[in-house]
Amino acid sequence: MNPTEKPVNQKAWWLVLPVLLCVAFSAILPLMTVVNYSVQDIISPERRVFVGTEWFAAVMRDEELHGALWRQLQFSLAVLAVEIPLGIALALSMPAQGWKSSAVLVLVALSLLIPWNVVGTIWQIYGRADIGLLGHTLQALGFDYSYTGDPVHAWFTVLIMDVWHWTPLVALLAFAGLRSIPDAYYQAARIDGASKFAVFRYIQLPKMREVLMIAVLLRFMDSFMIYTEPFVLTGGGPGTATTFLSQYLTQKAVGQFDLGPAAAFSLIYFLIILLLCFVLYNWMQSLGTAHKEHAHA
Amino acid sequence: MHDQRFHKRSIFLAAYIIFALLPIYWMVNMSFKTNEEILSSFSLWPQHFTWGNYLTIFTDPSWYSGYINSLIYVAINTVISVSVALPAAYAFSRYRFLGDKHIFFWLLTNRMTPPAVFLLPFFQLYTTLGLMDTHIAVAMAHLLFNVPLAVWILEGFMSGIPREIDETAYIDGYSFPRFFVMIFLPLIKAGVGVAAFFCFMFSWVELLLARTLTSVNAKPIVATMTRTVSASGMDWATLAAAGVLTIVPGAIVIWFVRHYIAKGFAMGRV
Amino acid sequence: MQLILEGVGKSVSGQVHLYPQTLALHPGQVTVLLGATQAGKTSLMRIMAGLDTPTQGRVLVDGQDVTGLAVRHRNVAMVYQQFINYPSMTVFDNIASPLKLSGQADVAKRVHELATKLHIEMFLDRLPAELSGGQQQRVALARALAKKAPLMLLDEPLVNLDYKLREELREELAQLFATGDSTVVYATTEPAEALLLGGYTAVLDRGRLLQYGPTAEVFHQPASIQVASAFSDPPMNLLPAQTSATGVALPGGFELPLALPASAPKDVVLGARASALRVQGQPGDLQLPGVVELAEISGSDTFVHAQTPVGNLVAQLTGVHEFKLGAPISLFLQPSQVYVFDAAGPLVMAPLRSGRMG
Amino acid sequence: MAQIELDLAHAYKPNPQVETDYALLPLKMSFRDGGAYALLGPSGCGKTTMLNIMSGLVVPSQGTVKFDGVDVTRSSPQERNIAQVFQFPVIYDTMTVAQNLAFPLKNRQVPADQIRKRVGQIAEMLDMSHQLDMRAAGLSADQKQKISLGRGLVRSDVSAVLFDEPLTVIDPHLKWQLRRKLKQIHHELKLTLIYVTHDQVEALTFADEVVVMTRGKAVQVGSAEALFERPAHTFVGHFIGSPGMNFLPAQAGGGVLTVQGQAVQVPQGLAVPEGALKLGIRPEYLQVSAVAEPGTLAAVVRQVQDVGTYQMVTCDAVGVVLKLRLTPQAQAPQVGAQVFLHVLGPHTCFYKNEELVA
Asked: What is the rounded distance in angstroms from the CA atom of residue D171 to the CA atom of residue A167?
């Protein structure tokens, strides 16, 4: 008899109610105000005019938004391309048990505990030619490095900062996946004379698939809404080289105070996230269930 | 493990750890220098070691009040998030009910919502409620991503406990609340600890909402730090010291949950 | 305590786990639910306990309808397959928990009494995780007994234990149930356990209740081929045959003289348990030449699997006998031990059981 | 294939003093090339430790392991060229059945056409030829175990195939088919097979020689028949057979044997060792008669159980519980009746401090 199905019990709604109230208060109410603003022109608190989808059309045509969206996609894909493989490699090199393992885990996870603006500050100092170790060394090596002046340097510095900040998350997830592999698989591989690569390709990778899906979901989403670190490091500069979606939206909403377009843009931004999340979540579930079926067969 | 392979792996690991710790070391190094020494000479070790920067932070109310404010709203948020998430996680872990899949997905999307999207509405909402510049405002705002995270982590830990234990308790005559407190909670102690740690951490590190919803008497440390960035002369030394102090709480707490870090980050899925 | 399941059926998301069936348990007796995995034993048991509500039908306790009643308000005790105990409590607290909850007096004395009865008195202050599988299951048993519930349910409690440990615990359980006065329901896949526990047996197959009656009667008078195969280990030899003037004709020209009742149909199936075949022929036996496929030794018996012209047969011999794979062998079928079934399933004739009440 | 010689001991602590410090007490044992052996014993008796020492996963704290005379004590499983089937199926999920089977040969750079031929051959032997292109992950547990076995068999030079309780996760009714398959494979390939289990049916059926172990010691190595007929140690008598051997303490002197004060006449031609003894007689061999005869002991019938394929009679002889088996047709004595049990007979074993003397 397969493990009995979870029983259906509508009374469970009472248990979920508190969460619904909390998250509704902090998500649905605000979302309603955004929708409200996105279809009106607010000239002054008293005078509001219904404008339908005008703001949405304007936002869609906004060149600067396209630039920001394109830079954001480039950045998020670059983040995945670097952090996923680096995270896996790091997980593979981490000791499995004992105090060494805990020590390495804490050291590696340290960067995840730092407030996001402090990460920006650290790299802001670290990269400066006059007072930063990195900036100073690069200058000494004759490399004219300036993350405030050169857009390419700025983009790469933001990328490396994100890699430095978030790769441990991927490493920890991959490490958790590795630790769930029973020892018998490694023994069988040794008995079959499998090479190190074969062990990775046929045992470790398939077993890490589920957690790597979570890593991709988390890393893509979090990088897609990055704001604080680039804002503190480069303020989005030079020019708009490192201005990504969240910063562009904040400038529009708080900066220029034109609520309509900002609200419309917020909704579009939210829908893009919802869509990507839906695709990745379902892919993860199908992999999860496929994985679970194997476990039961 | 053959020596040769082990050797290569530990070099790679050592290299990464150096890469990870260098920037932090550089900030700590600066936090013990005076501004003059920072700007005048470049040295790997503070020549004139000083506790001055830390002293200013611990004496200047505009600095240390930032830490206190942060700790207050982070604590409130963590308590609310975990206590609200516990019953919900139990419901998701133990029962199927109308729309349970959709709610679970909706919680995920909330965890993934960019704070920037809710910047404006929160500002509006809390001003109309008269909650602007209070700890409660920031604590409530952070529920947006912390409650879903807590539910995910706790549901993962709870699913590890066989359902037959609940049934045995009901058979023995335990009522739900008594069973939940006396038998179930001790079994997921680790899960509650990990969920609390992650709520603490994600609330502590957030800047955008915390800065927007506060001005004076609830201003968090993360906000005071960005203020000095735009000040006239760059007060690097104090900034570095403040930065170091923001890492300390996380570093202390992580040691207690070090065995479950990975499971927590995977939102309990592993 | 009189438990009656009236037309109880259970299907989960379209899949039928239990077809509607009525079962009135004999009060104060042991009822064994016998059936292969997936036969519906656990589903039936969970409905009896009140852990699940049936899709249709009613559950009556002493005439009162308790179908929807939550398990907390039912007075039942249950032991699971995977030795379920409260991991965070000591063995003592585990056993004492039902007593404390119902506010009974002299809890400590009762716990010590039960622990001694189940030979775990030396582990009372230990955590369940520190004990072996067998000891953990004894703790779960002690907790179930502590409740003195009128209905006690055990879902294949011995399946995860060592072979020899299963034997010992089976005897202890038989004695425990004999002394207790509660109605006991015991699920198992092993016919030997049903026979050893005695009492009554309900044979289940793919969600259907095939037969319910005194264990010996169900074994010796199986209602159909399904009951006979479910209730024999190794599986009963079933040989399709035709009735003839003097008895039964088997493929390959073998004749077996049998006094069949007039109502016997043309196409029948001969049923012979492994114990009905032997290697030393006696007058009147039907000799079947064959080739040894496998000889299984179970310590006290040897089961010889042989290919014969009438089909693959399994014979049970007392003691240990060595057979070479592929060696020729003659099996002798005792006519007095043969069952005859209608090809469609129902029993036509069962062997007479000499000198013992039915 | 290899002749395996063990001359070792294995202790948990660096310098073991008392017996309980040893996972494996000092032993000297050799496994014939091409033989099928079983390591049988309850959980925690050291059988898996011994298997891991042979496979190279564990290095014994003292002594040596030799394969065909070559000392391999410290060499890895790969260097010993062994194969192992684990408790749960260990397969490469992303590969097909054929790729799984070919994997060990591919790692040895065996030419592709040779691999295809060998994989086809082994798949045929495992009745899996029709599943070669299916993804291994989707198969049932017993098919996966066959793949795991196949990965060892494809290597024609494999020194030994080790099994660590391989049938644990298999459904009961599929188990005997897999046992038969293992027996056939051993019959065809004549490989050295070493099988660890707590289930005596698997051990006695599968192996030519069974090593019965308890508390880190191999108490007897012998064929199923030897273990049944002449158990060298009381543990073996108890462990083999269900139910195990009856034991009764006795005092022998001058042609008369007394059991708890009751005298038993020694039948002619039966040599009985002198002094304090423990008699061992299997229920299958314990005869009963209504009148006293030489070699019988008076007893009272306590219980008669109809266990289907036989009747189990439990008697109380001067405070000692004795069990005996009767055929289903035999006329069982009434409960409470006085009977005489032939405790002294050709099948009786005599023990002095747990060791077989006659």
From this structure: 44
- D277 Cβ contact partners less than 8 Å away, ≥ 6 residues apart: D249, D250, D251, D252, D257, D350, D351, D352, D357
Rg over CA atoms, chain D = 25
Q: Residue A140: how many CB atoms within 10 A of its CB?
A: 10
- pTM score of the predicted model: 0.86
Q: Which of B16, B117, B259 to mutate to test the interface with A (most CBs of A within 10 A)?
A: B117
8 Å CB contact between D165 and D8: no
Nearest CA in chain A to C52: A7
Q: Could you tell me the CA-to-CA distances from B102 to A268, A278, B108, D130, D255 in Å, in that order?
A: 21, 11, 10, 42, 87
Residues (pLDDT < 50) of chain A are 1-3, 291-297
Whether residue D55 is found in the same domain as residue D126: yes
- The interface pTM score, or ipTM, of the predicted complex is 0.84
Residue type for position C217 = E
Cα–Cα distance for residue pair D325/A168, rounded to 1 Å: 68
Structure-model confidence comparison of residues B193 and B120, the more confident one: B193
Residue D258 sits in a domain of what CATH number? Answer: 2.40.50.140
Same domain, D135 and D230: yes
Range D272-282 burial, b when 16+ CB lie within 10 A, else e: beeeebbbbbb
Domains identified in chain C and CATH numbers: 3-227 (3.40.50.300), 235-349 (2.40.50.140)
Partners of C32 in the β-ladder: C186, C201
Are D322 and D341 in contact, with CB atoms under 8 Å apart? yes
Q: C287 Cβ partners below 8 Å, 6+ apart?
A: C281, C330, C331, C332
Q: Within a 10 A sphere around the Cβ of A158, how many other Cβ atoms? A: 25
In this prediction, residues C210-219 reach a mean pLDDT of 91
> Among the CATH numbers 3.30.559.30, 3.40.50.150, 1.10.3720.10, 2.130.10.10, which is that of B61-265?
1.10.3720.10
Query: Is D65's Cβ below 8 Å from some Cβ in A?
Result: no
Instruction: Please tell me if residue B182 touches chain A, with a CB cutoff of 8 Å.
Output: no
Residue D83 CB contacts under 8 Å (≥ 6 apart), including other chains: A191, D149, D151, D152, D153, D155, D158, D160, D161, D162
SS3 of residue D281 by DSSP: strand
- B227: pLDDT confidence band, cut at 50, 70 and 90? low
Residues 111-150 of B with CB under 8 A from A: 112-122, 124-125, 140-141, 143-144, 147-148
Q: Tell me how long chain A is.
A: 297
Q: Are residues D73 and D213 in the same domain?
A: yes
